Structures are given as structure tokens and as C-alpha cells.
Amino acid sequence: MEKFFNTEGPMKADMHYLIPSFQRFDWEEVRVLIERQKYFLLHAPRQTGKTTALMEMVTALNQEGRYLALYVNIEAAQTARNDADKGNRIICDILLQSGELFFSEPLPWSEARDKLRPTEPQQRLNQLLSWWAKHSSKPIVLLLDEVDALIGDTLVSLLRQLRTGYMQRPEAFPHSIILCGVRDLKDYRIHQSNGDIITGGSAFNVKAESLTLGNFTPQEIRTLYQQHTEATGQYFDEAIFELLWQDTYGQPWLVNAIGNELTWKDRALRDRSVVINLPHYLAARERLIQSRAVHLDQLADKLRENRVRRVIAPILAGEPSPQQRQDDLEYCEDLGLIRRKPLEISNRIYREILPRELTSALQDSITNQQQSWYLTETNRLDMVKLLQAFQQFFRENSESWLQRFAYKEAGPQLLMQAFLQRIINGGGRINRDYALGRRRTDLLIEWPVREHNGQWQEVQIVVIELKILHGSLEKIVEEGIAQTLDYSDKCGAEESHLVIFDRDATTSWEEKIWHWPCRLVSVWGC
Predict the structure, then answer these.
(1) Domain edge (last residue) among 266, 291, 316
(2) What is the pLDDT of residue 454?
(3) Where is the domain boundary, 163, 180, 212?
(4) pLDDT confidence bin for 110, thresholds 50/70/90
(5) Of 10, 171, 256, 512, whose CB count within 10 A is highest?
(6) Which domain holds residue 448?
(7) CA distance linking residue 444 with residue 461, whole number of Å
(8) CA torsion sign, 492 to 497 to 503 to 504?
(9) Is the pTM above the cut of 0.85?
(10) What is the pLDDT of residues 423-442, one digit of tens each?
(11) Are both 192 and 222 inside the same structural domain?
């Protein structure tokens, strides 16, 4: 069977193109932590290879023969929520099943089940791990996955039982335990059934380290794709790799998902004699963005959380925010939504997805706009006509929509992007550039004037810069024109527009709506 780019579940070396986990984190540090009987964390955003890394650790440790290592996914206990008794039963059942399934060592697992029945439910895990350590011929290394999926009292009970047993290791408790999840332990905010909120650190204060699994490097991306070339003889155009890096910043799921789009989802490219070129890549990226795949959907779902909104909204607006707190930033970074220095959305694909997700309902509700209305006889976008239509749309709809937006700070920018997406969608592309403190949002529209066999032959490139009016209009126009021209020059745009939103409720619409046509940059008021 031909190997493929995997986007679901752990990697398998005999089936998938992969970068070994041991190349992506400090395996020597993990070894030392285990040797020193430490309890520690491995955390990283979803679908970055955590489970694969844990399973590779288990295989390596068991092959070395010094330890008995067991991987256990305890996500099923999430359903127990604040019912700690039920949660403990589920966790113990999973652990017993895993022990029976994966270990050939003849331990009396049925005896363990019998001993647990009369045990107080919230002591079951502690008793089970103690029993196992006493009966095992080797020190135990336990790897618990999806720990932060647990909720409330169930999570508190788990952490406290592990903390209680810590002093008994290694003779009567696991030699070393690795907890794995999306978030670092210090980001856990555990809501108990009695209304108390405690942090993960207070419930599990024996943690030695918090390790993380990083994204692919540019070289690792090339190595991964080269595996496909070596296996099939199909080549990738060199031009795609810089874009692939900028679009994904090495996020493993995105890198694999685009690889899958290019080598399998695009049926024409299943012909391995066809070289995968830049137009193929751009089409694959757009399909992926529009697909709302599970990974991307989970990411978008986090936008509803207040601590995420407090970080993301100012970035979308390009405005500095005094609301941002260190723990919010760390939480969003753990989720993989942002990277810092400078603070920005973590990659270009996420940068595209977040505004689309936040405005999807609005896009669906814009039913009185047709793409064909804004095309000239030569199949070019009539941007003056389009922006005039947006001014009218904004005048009629902004008040009601901005009131409903959770992301009010970025409301005008999001409305503009929703309107443009409704018109451009299915034809051209909108590329977004925004970051905290830039005080502007740059939109780059690419529209295919001529196509041949799905390949863009001639492209209309338009830049639109969005700014919020602060202080003097003359000053912001002067500043905005300079910024727009600079961005247009970098992009090779043939047409540039600057849109300034006046959010002063006391200003009339007659004063807000205006247009100053200029040769280099047309300036619009909204």
C-alpha cells in the first residue's frame, strides 16, 4: 500500500509519512526525568502529534526493558463531569483493560478488580496503581493522555490521588507519570460542584516540568514531503515550500492536511507523473480553508470563550488592548491560536479561518448581493462600485450587527470582510494581514481575470486597508495612505483603497459616508 499524509489519529510508520517524535522534543530530557522518578507534563495544541509521541515513548521504554510503560487515554471519563465516583470507575476500568490488553506479564488483573469493588470510589485509582506497582516486576511508567479533557470534581480527584501516591513511588506507586493534554497544568481552572474554583497547580503540586511538542521546522516540512517524492516519484515545485511555511508555520495537522489535499483529494494529482505546482497548492489551501474540517472547527469553537475573545478581538482589530492578561495569552498560546513576539495569529491559514468563522452567519444572511454585479466586461472587479455598495450596506446594517457581535472591537473590520467574502467567494481569494497594535487591517484581493484549465493566467490584485478613526481625520488619512502604498508596493497591487471607519455615535451618516478618489489610493469613509 502506498503511504499517505495522515490527518486522523496517531501516526503509523508503515502507513504514513511522518517525522519521528524523538526528533521533535528532547528525548534525553524525558529519559532523565523518568530515571529521576519525576511526574511531569507534555502539552501541545490539538493534533500536533502528542499521542504519537506518547506511544513512541511507550514502545521505546518497553523495548529497553528497564520499565513497564503503559499508555492510557482517559478522555472517556469526561462524561462523568462533576461525578467523581463515576469518573474514577471509568478511569480504573480503562486502565485495567489497557493493562490486560498490552502486557504479557501474567498479573492477576481479575484479583485487582475484586479488590477494587469494596474500595471507596475516590480512592480506587490510588489503590489500583498501588496494587499494580507492588505486583509489577519492573518500575512502572504511566502515560495518561487527554487529562485536561476531564471536568470539575473528576479532574480534581484524579490529580489529588496521583499527588497522594507520589510519596509511595516506586515500590507502591508508579515510578514516573506523564500527564498529557492541550493545556499546561497552570492553565487548568477547575470548577468544582461546590462552586469552588481551584487551579491545576494547587491540586497537583508535585509536577517537575511542563514539556511541549513544537511545530515542524521548515526543513522537517521538506523532509516530510520528500518522503512522498521518494515513495511515488511525484515532485513538488520548489515554489510551494515558502508559502507552505507561511501558511502553516509548521502546524503538523495543517502540513499533513495540505499534503493530503495535494496528493489525494485532487484527483488529477493522483497521476504521480504530474508535478505539483503553485496553482495546485493555492487551490488546495483554499479547499482546506472552506472545508471546515474537524481540526479547524474545534479551533473556531474556542472563539466563544471569553478568555480567548479578550486576546483575539484586539488582534483582529489591530488595536492595543489593556484587557489582555498573561494567563489569557498563555492559554491561547497553548491552544495554538497565537504566537508571540510579535503577538499575532499563529499562521496564515488560521488568520483566514477566524474572521470567516466569526462572520459565517452574516455571510449567509447577505442574500441581495451577486458577484456578477461587480464584474466589468473584461471580467475585472469594479472596486469603486463594490465599495460604494459596501458603504450602503454598512449604513443599513452595521448598527444591528455590531450589537450582536461578541467581537465588537473588530466589528467594522469583520463586517467588511464578510461582505467581501460574500462577493469574492468561489471566484478569487482574500488574504488577510492583521496583528496587535498595527492599528490597521490589510486585505489583499486576488481575482482571476483569465483562467485556462483551472490555472490563473491573469490576476487582478487589489489592496484594501481598514483603519478606525482616532483623532484627526487628516492625520489618519495621511498615515493610512503611506501605509497602503507601502503594502501595495510589496504585493504588486494595481489598485489600492483606504477605508476609514468612524465609530463616533454622534456623527451623522451624511458625515461618515464619503469618497475621495485619488490616483494612487482611493479613500473611503464609513
Answers:
(1) 291
(2) 66
(3) 212
(4) low
(5) 256
(6) 295-525
(7) 7
(8) positive
(9) yes
(10) 887 678 888 887 655 677 88
(11) no
